Structure formats: structure tokens, C-alpha cells
Amino acid sequence: MKVIIHQLADWDRLAQQLAERLPEHAVLTLSGPLGAGKTTLVQALARAFGANENPRSPTFSLVRSYKLANGARFKTLVHVDAYRLERPEDALALGLDELAAEDGSLLVVEWPEKLGNLLRALHKPIVQLTIIQDAGTDLRRVEVTE
């Protein structure tokens, strides 16, 4: 799936599409440069799943969890920001395996390239989302691959 983001409302439309399509026990990875809109998409996803709280970037805490609305396909959105990790091994202390194993959890990972092969070791379906910024504009090109 390929999407062009022109305005903030487009993130909400993309999040709604993802909310309907993500497989059970999914790991959603978000790649793109700083300021591309990764956290904005996580916020839109939280809205699509009826979260009571607006996600903030977990850059310093690395992981934040949000309860989702009763009846949502997932019970918890687990937001991971791996930007500050220096080595993939540093992620072991985050307990990603336990977070991903929780029934009804959706693991959303910013900067997945910092984790090496750790996500593949979870043996969960991985949906990759890549955001490309058009230079000098607010336009974003988003590609989703499963």
C-alpha cells in the first residue's frame, strides 16, 4: 500500500486503514527521518483504536503503553522509540519479547533499524511502514509492506 500525506487528516485516514488491516499480534515498524511523522502516526493509530490518552514520544523512556478502547482489535498499544539505542543488544532490557507476547498487544516500533534482527526473533507478523519526506515540502510518501 502506498499513500501520500498532504495534511494532518491524512494521517488519521492512514491509521484507520491500518487499524482495519493489521494482523493479530502484529509488530508495526515505522522508519523515516527525524520529523517525518512517526509519532504523529502513532497518535493517529491511538485515536483509531479509541485510546483515552494521546501518545507522546517515548524518546527518553524508550517504551510507553496505552490502553485501547473496549472492543478494539487490540487491548494495548505499546510504543517503542529505539532512536537512542546504541546497539541492538541494548533493547534486550526493554523486554520487547514479553511486551509482544501479551495477549492483545500491538507493538509499534520507531527506528526499527536500531534493533537489528531482534524483531524477527519475536516470530510475530511484521508490517513495515516507511515514510519519505519530499525535500522542501510538507508532503510525505508512505509505503506499507507486509
Please explain how this structure is put together.
This protein is of the alpha/beta class. It has one domain (2-145): Rossmann fold (3-Layer(aba) Sandwich), CATH 3.40.50.300. It is 21% helix and 27% strand. The chain contains three helices and seven strands. It has helices spanning 8-21, 38-48, 96-101, and strands at residues 2-5, 27-31, 63-67, 76-81, 105-110, 126-133, 140-145. It has a seven-stranded mixed sheet. Strand 3 (63-67) and strand 4 form a beta hairpin. Helix 1 (8-21) crosses helix 2. It starts with a strand and ends with a strand.
Quick overview:
This protein is an alpha/beta fold and about 150 residues long.
Please tell me the overall pLDDT. 87
Distance between the termini: 9 Å
The H-and-E topology, N to C, reads as EHEHEEHEEE
Rg over C-alpha atoms, rounded to the nearest angstrom: 14 Å
The CATH superfamily title: P-loop containing nucleotide triphosphate hydrolases
Structural class: alpha/beta
**Proportion of helical residues:** 10-25%
Number of helices: 3
Say what the CATH topology is: Rossmann fold
Spans where pLDDT lies below 50 across 5 or more residues: none
In percent terms, what proportion of residues is strand? 25-35%
Name of the top-level CATH class: Alpha Beta
Largest sheet: 7 strands, mixed
Task: Count the domains.
Answer: 1
Number of strands: 7
The spatial strand order of the largest sheet comes to: 1-7-6-2-5-4-3
Instruction: Choose one word for the global shape.
Output: globular
CATH architecture: 3-Layer(aba) Sandwich
